[in-house]
Structure prediction request, 114 residues.
Amino acid sequence: MSGNGEVVDLRRYRLARLIRDAGRQQGELARLMRESAQERTQLAEALQGAQRHLASIADNYKILLVRLKREKDFRDACQEATELDDLDEMIRRRDALAEELEAIRRTARGTASA
Prediction:
C-alpha cells in the first residue's frame, strides 16, 4: 500500500507541477498580450500623428496652388494691360491689379501666421 501511495503522490506532484507551469505560461502570455496591446496603441497614435501631418501638408499644398494660380492670373492681367493702347484703361487695370496684389499679400500673411 505504501508503494501505491507513492504513485499517487508522484501523480499529484506532476499535476501540481503542470498546473504551476500552466500558470506561469498563462502569466507570460498575459504579459505578452499587454505588451502587444501597448505596442498597437503606440502604433495607432503614431499613425494618427502621421495622418494629421499629411493632412496639414495637403492643406498647405492646396493653399499654395491657389496662390500660384492667383499670381499667374495677376501676371497675365499685367501683360494684357501693357499691351493696351488706351491709357485710361491701362490705369484702371493697374489700380485693380494693385488691389488684387494687396489681397494676395494679405492672404499670404494670414496663412503664414495660421
Helices lie at 2-82, 87-113. The chain is about 95% helix and 0% strand. The CA atoms of residues 35 and 61 lie 39 Å apart. Residues 2-82 form the longest helix (81 residues).
